[in-house]
Specification:
By secondary structure, the protein is mostly beta strands. Helices cover 3% and strands 42% of the residues. It has helices at residues 361-364, 419-426, and strands at 6-12, 18-27, 32-41, 46-50, 57-62, 68-74, 79-85, 91-93, 101-106, 112-118, 150-156, 161-163, 171-172, 178-179, 185-191, 202-208, 214-216, 225-229, 235-241, 250-256, 263-264, 273-278, 283-290, 293-300, 306-309, 330-336, 339-346, 354-355, 370-378, 381-389. The strands form eight sheets. Strands 13, 14, 15, 16 and 17 form a five-stranded antiparallel beta sheet that branches. A four-stranded antiparallel beta sheet has the order 1-2-3-4, with no helix packed on it. Strands 5-6-7-8 form a four-stranded antiparallel beta sheet, with no helix packed on it.
Length: 429
């Protein structure tokens, strides 16, 4: 189980030539997971590891050209910072500061980044340093200090930074900021405060980069999250629960930047949408839950119609905001029932996926447990579950049954590789 590599975070360069992704491996001696940063050359079918001195990589992003940037741990500042790969293949640290960068996005002209970080709390001196009490409200129950608000900043490639938003009574949510194609404005999700319990009081806000003027895009003031500008900047897509009820499934909505009524893009699909990306200026690629699998679905942003994108045997495909190239290629990561996660490439939305990496080939060659979807009726609804058979299953024998109950409706079981199910099945359950 500890030899299983995690493959995640795949993003493709705008020209479709390169794919960046992360490989995570267990280091048992340190009780830790350590990341590797990889770049795959699509034309040459060649993979290379970028060996920089970091243990974590996230928020991978390509510039409008072919430069790669990411958020990684920084031993100098003891915080996560933005780094970019320079023209010579070396690494350049873009940000500094005592608080970690939470999310970042490269500007369309490649000259600067928008990023989110929490405000630094001034250090106390003397006896005041022992005054660690704080007002408890909507904080997580294990919080040991009051949360500081997060805000939006700009930084250029030389490290010169500029604060774009401020305020102690509200906070920018931990979502990707998204630039308009002309670089003049940025959209983000704004929350009523920094406390975790106020995250649902969030809405999409647009800030003018030159003036700092902000305005909301819709009348809603709750439950909006994860906004992304369309490639032509005419509209913004975001997640919002059906009928404004957070107990319902999430839908993808789209609203015109010039104003108007938001449109429920995914409503008639009637599936929970866990994430999405713009495929082109008129179509959204959505990650939706469907029974015991994840589907990738293309949806027209301004009209009705859906089309499935093939993921082959992959049952839990994951996509990032930068998963589609200008030539129509798509990248995703995921696992099949008998193979842990790998990197996959679709030459077009109508093509078949190609497995590009083979980190877990050794695991896939083991005698693994077969899975199948089962259904049953409960409470007037058809419910779905995953049944895992021990290797060498004999229908004439009786086996002990292990039932793993999870919290619904927010979680679901997939017919995808799961180390726990494989381990239990290997012990005869």
């Amino acid at each position: 189980m500890n030899r299983i590599a995690g493959v995640s975070g795949a993003v493709i360069s705008p020209d479709g030539r390169q794919i960046a992704y992360v490989v995570s491996r267990s280091v048992l001696e340190r009780n830790a997971s350590v990341d590797e940063l990889h770049v795959y050359d699509v034309a040459l079918r060649r993979d290379r590891r970028l060996a920089f001195a970091h243990e974590s990589y996230s928020n991978l992003m390509w510039s409008s050209g072919d430069r790669l940037a990411y958020i990684a741990d920084d031993k100098t500042t003891n915080a996560d910072q933005i780094f970019a790969v320079d023209a010579g293949g070396g690494e350049q640290r873009i940000t500094a500061g005592s608080t970690s960068v939470m999310d970042a996005a490269w500007s369309p002209d490649g000259a600067r980044f928008a990023f989110v970080r929490r405000d630094a709390v001034p250090a106390r001196a003397g006896a005041a340093s022992f005054l660690d009490g704080f007002a408890v409200g909507d904080n997580p129950y294990l919080a040991t200090k009051a949360p500081a608000p997060a805000h939006l900043w700009l930084v250029d490639l030389r490290g010169a930074k500029q604060r774009l938003t401020s305020g102690s009574d509200w906070s920018v949510r931990d979502d990707l900021p998204s630039w308009s194609s002309d670089g003049r404005s940025i959209v983000y999700a704004r929350a009523d405060g920094a406390a975790y319990g106020l995250r649902d009081r969030s809405f999409v806000e647009r800030v003018d980069v030159a003036s700092g003027e902000r305005r909301a895009l819709t009348p809603q003031r709750r439950f909006e999250e994860a906004p992304l500008y369309a490639p032509d900047a005419s509209s913004v897509a975001y997640l919002y629960p059906r009928d404004g009820d957070p107990a319902n499934e999430s839908e993808v909505f789209s609203v015109a930047v010039r104003g108007g009524e938001p449109r429920d893009v995914s409503g008639s699909l009637d599936r929970h949408t866990e994430g999405f990306a713009w495929y082109d200026a008129s179509q959204l690629l959505m990650r939706v839950y469907d029974r015991t699998r994840v589907r990738l679905v293309l949806a027209a942003a301004q009209r009705t119609g859906f089309r499935d994108v093939s993921t082959g045997d992959v049952a839990d495909a994951s996509i990032e905001a930068q998963c589609a190239a200008r030539d129509g290629a798509i990248v995703f990561t995921g696992s099949t029932p008998l193979h842990p996660s790998e990197l996959y490439y679709l030459p077009s939305a109508t093509g078949s996926p190609v497995e590009l990496t083979h980190y877990n080939e050794e695991i896939a060659m083991l005698d693994l447990a077969r899975q199948t979807e089962i259904s049953y009726s409960a409470g007037g609804y058809t419910q779905y579950a995953v049944l895992t058979f021990p290797p060498g299953y004999d229908a004439a024998r009786r086996y002990p049954l292990l039932v793993r109950i999870h919290g619904g409706p927010n979680l679901s079981s997939f017919v995808a590789f799961d180390p726990f199910y494989q381990y239990a099945a290997s012990r005869g359950y």
